[in-house]
């Protein structure tokens, strides 16, 4: 994979905005956008960022203002699954 390169003035501007580790900042930005656009799962975000679990990735994403990718259809599926396994709790 090729490295990105910038002129020194662009690099200075980006470093001022995102901190000195531009490689990490770019990796995190790609992970965030990948998750927001549903191109990456939470598990894939965890792998990209070196986190142990998808739960850690979800927490990290939340700390960065990213909402959980969880649709109303996901909720319906989860409720049906729970009702099947725990009928006493179904309402």
Describe the structure.
- With 91 residues, the chain is mainly alpha-helical.
- The protein has one domain.
- The protein has five helices and no strands.
- The protein has helices spanning 8-18, 22-36, 42-49, 54-63, 72-85.
Main beta-sheet annotation? none
- N-to-C terminal Cα separation, in Å? 53 Å
**So how many helices?**
5
Number of strands: 0
N-to-C SSE string, H for helix and E for strand: HHHHH
Q: Classify the helix fraction into a percent range.
A: 55-70%
What structural class should be given to the helix and strand makeup? mainly alpha
Mean pLDDT: 91
**Gross morphology:** elongated
Radius of gyration: 19 Å
Low-confidence stretches: none
Quaternary structure classification: single chain
- Into how many domains do the coordinates divide? 1
Strand content: under 5%
Quick recap:
The protein has 91 residues and is an all-alpha fold. The protein has one domain. 64% of the residues lie in helices and 0% in strands.
In terms of topology, how is this protein built?
Blueprint: H1 8-18, H2 22-36, H3 42-49, H4 54-63, H5 72-85
């Amino acid at each position: 994979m090729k490295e990105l390169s910038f002129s020194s003035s662009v690099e200075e501007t980006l470093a001022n905005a995102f901190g000195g580790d531009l490689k990490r900042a770019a990796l995190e930005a790609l992970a965030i956008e990948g998750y927001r656009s549903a191109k990456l799962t939470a598990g894939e975000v965890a792998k990209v960022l070196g986190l142990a679990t998808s739960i850690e990735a979800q927490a990290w994403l939340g700390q960065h203002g990213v909402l959980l990718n969880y649709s109303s259809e996901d909720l319906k599926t989860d409720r049906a699954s729970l009702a099947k396994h725990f009928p006493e709790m179904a309402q």
